[in-house]
Sequence to fold (124 residues):
Amino acid sequence: MSTGFVFNVLGLLLVSVLSHYIGRRGRAGTLKMGRTPGIKTEATVASDEAWRVGHQAAAPWMLAAAGAGYVLVGVCIAYPIAAPSAGWPTGIVTAAVGAGSILVVLVVGVLGMVRANRAARAVG
Fold:
């Protein structure tokens, strides 16, 4: 495995862990506004209530992004190990799996951010 691939997988894992943290704390209503990770848009930082409502709306999406990320980290690790013995192609396919995995997690996370922003705007 190349160094770039390892950093790709570590980045995917980091994004997944952050999405999980934001999703769990947001769903519980315990994610505090300030220096903690969170969805920081003009609408979500307008008030404590907008922050709470926005993160509760985004929580299912953030948890889905985290779950997908965890599964895809496993795929990214398992594929290059299993592929040669199974006769599957490696190289570009391994790179595509890594890049596609990050894309999936980011798209689902962005959908959560859109939900958070809409919910926070509805608060006022």
Observations:
- Residues 3-123 form one domain.
- The mean pLDDT is 89.
